[in-house]
């Protein structure tokens, strides 16, 4: 990137004997495409991690990098235009340019989520609640919808299927829709309870910090619809891509598949949270697991993601079967699992998880009995805001994600995966 920039800003050699010619059209196209390839790589490095971006769209405009070349640019050439010169909807011919814009928005969404999102200072103030049009969340969502509205409807899924683009070998259609639905998923998931009560319906955060304003009527139901439909679409896109021979075995589709798999698992165990918008959650979960099984053959990342899904499944099953025991548990009690559910890269914490779950079980057995009236009071959102599980149970309340090495199989309802 630096070499390209230097050649652009200082194209003339100090050696006067060297004849510097103006680059031909093909060389200019290659240079422009390389600029945007570096930009996309920078955006993908930021997803699922806490790494700050080195390049922004504003920086690319400042460098006066032309618009990304069309699909046929290398065959027939094209007249390079500045980024600000746009008038028509972008179609399949401009899919590379659509991807560039999509990755820029994707990186902005990831930056919002991984800079603590709702938990960042001031983000729960009334002006920053997600339904407020000037909030950071709303601006991310608006940018995402503007991007989608600026592309031709032939690039919309599920209006158009993966099969309709498979014969052209155009993977861009898959990437474009994965980016869109993954952004929808990540934005809406940020405000959903990490560990809801088994029979609770769609609602906002149940662990601190709490939103300081009340949501408009049916806001959380609409958010649930967006969230779980997005998770379903990611699962079916990846399933269809595999069926049509487009093996999406790169980290970004893998991370999209993992995130969708996690939310479909959530929908299986907490169906009331979906507002009835995920009737095929189990089927979509199986699709996601099948994809991750293929993905882990190519990338070790997949192994960590599958392990996190298994850990989450074990936790969710425990919550549903031991309602009283988990009545007052929240994200604070499972912070490591919460982190693992957001990670682009997963560290093996098996030994730590096993040791800490044993400590937590011992702590639970020794914990004080809370009266029935107090249980009811703590169940109310008003008292929950002041409830501190760490103060109640000590350090043992901070349960991480865990894995029992003694188990040969992990079950997902009636779905069972063999652990090699």
UniProtKB/TrEMBL annotation:
- Tree of life domain: Eukaryota
What are the protein's GO molecular function terms? Answer: DNA-binding transcription factor activity, RNA polymerase II-specific; metal ion binding
Q: Which residues form a coiled coil?
A: none
InterPro entries for the chain: TF_fung
Query: What is any one of the record's Gene Ontology cellular component terms?
Result: nucleus
Keyword tags: Metal-binding, Nucleus, Transcription, Transcription regulation
Q: Where in the cell is it found?
A: Nucleus
The cross-references to PANTHER family, in alphabetical order and at most eight, read: ZN(II)2CYS6 TRANSCRIPTION FACTOR (EUROFUNG), ZN(II)2CYS6 TRANSCRIPTION FACTOR (EUROFUNG)-RELATED
Protein name as catalogued: Uncharacterized protein
